[in-house]
Amino acid sequence: MESYIESVDFFKGNNPEEIAQKYGTPLYVYNEDIIRDRMRKVANVITKYPYRANYSIKANSNMSILKMALEEGVNCDAMSEGEIKMLLKAGFPTEQIFFVSNNIDAKEMQFAIDNDIMISLDSLDQLRLFGSINRGGKCAVRLNPGVGAGHHEKVVTAGKKTKFAIQEDDVDEIFAIAKEYDLTICGINQHVGSLFMDPAPFLAAVDNFLRLAKRFPDLEFIDFGGGYGIPYHKLNDEKDFDMKGFSEELTKKLDKFVEEYGKAPLFKSEPGRFCVAEGSVILGRVNAIKNNADKTYVGTDVGMNVLVRPSMYDSWHDIEIISNGKVVKGQDKEVTVAGNICESGDLLCKDRMLAKVTDNDLICVLDTGAYGYSMCYPYNCRMRPAEVLVCSDGSVKLIRRRETFEDLVSYFPE
Ligand code: LLP
Questions:
Q1: CA-nearest residue, atom 4 of ligand 1
Q2: Quick check: 79 and 58 in contact, CB under 8 A?
């Protein structure tokens, strides 16, 4: 496809140049329709059995997006006390929050217990700690299904090389600890990793996970984790994740499990990226173009502090060029797009064919809704950007103001 933003009318008739001028750049721009559509899709992955999707808010915890999840009937998973507090503030009832914890201290655990939030423990030590502060309590455990998947080794969270979850060999010890502290293990969860387009490894993990599940006789829920991919190469016609085919394959596995287990617990999943990635772009300004040796560098204000994924994982994000409010079509020449941060690795893409770009144009970086703003940081004292939402009715509203210098200095004691 030549232009994603045109094909979905991302700005809903608004002129991106006007949006950029009004709110400044770099700017995260979200599209409400797309986010709600993806949330509805994940809410229906399993229809035959009791099922709930938990939106994984580490992907994006903007309050307006959390409220959309609440309205769309999607539950949420949280990774920290901060994420739990964000969900409570958005209006989520405690029973709709699942705390998938990792290496937390007794204070953070106590916070979840005091707020009646279901918690998953991901090591024997953490399960013991939970037992010692909440004897007779109820919790879930995170199991390693033995198979991992993901777009980069840094986001694979199961298999042999990961800090996460309890390995199969230790399952007997889970029961011993539960007995010692009179705990009820009412749920199990897994997460194979982030971003798979081919569901095969995930489904293999499901087989192992459900085999382990049978060792737990009284499960109220089984949570398969997240990881559903999105087409980051959409300008090259990469296809969407086949949610329908995936859901059919998964349901077949559940049929077999439910028959053998004798009942259907509540099934859950934890998609983050799928819900929000495609519902956001970043608008950035082209401030300089130059040739260094044999490369052309397009210098912009979208630094690695605004979007860290390309420099952290070598991730690909499609880029469109907007000149005077109009998308520039075609391919002009190979360029490297850089940000304004003092790091040689501060590159959004390397040696990529882009449309003709000139000073003062806008770059529009696609698929930035997941792990975009949530991983921003004020390196070089560059403030975190603003976020705006293109609402379903076509209006544009600010959903997070730009960070200011005063915000940064407010952390220092007088
Ligand atoms: N559940 C658990 C326990 C997780 O650890 C994660 C992601 C998810 C659910 C959601 O996964 P998703 O559906 O979004 O793939 N920063 C990386 C991704 C890190 C994912 C961490 N865990 C990136 O930008 O690709």
A1: 191
A2: yes
Contact 337, 348 (CB under 8 A): yes
- Look at residue 198 in the predicted model and tell me its pLDDT: 93
pLDDT for 20-50, tens place per residue?
999 999 999 999 999 999 999 999 999 999 9
The whole-model pTM stands at 0.97
Using DSSP's 3-state secondary structure scheme, residue 81 falls into helix
| Cα atoms found within 13 Å of the Cα of residue 180, Cβ hemisphere only | 14
- Whether 157 is in the pocket of ligand 1, judged by its Cβ within 6 Å, is yes
**Secondary structure class of 262 (helix, strand, coil):** coil
Buried b (16+ CB within 10 A) or exposed e, 350-380: eebebbebeeebbbbbbbbbbbbbbbbeeee
Residues with a catalytic annotation lie at 342
* DSSP code of residue 382: P
Verify whether ligand 1 is closer than 6 Å to residue 369 (CB atom): no
Ligand 1 pocket member 361 (CB < 6 A): no
- 110 pLDDT exceeds 90? yes
**What pLDDT is attached to residue 155?**
83
First to last CA, the chain: 54
**Measured distance CA(400)–CA(62) in Å, rounded:** 8
> What spacing in Å lies between the alpha carbon of 194 and ligand 1's midpoint?
5
Q: How far apart are CA 221 and CA 295, in angstroms?
A: 54
Taking the centre of ligand 1 as the mean of its atom positions, its distance from the CA of residue 272, in whole angstroms, is 6
* Separation of alpha carbons 298 and 286, rounded Å: 7
pLDDT (0 to 100) of residue 240? 96
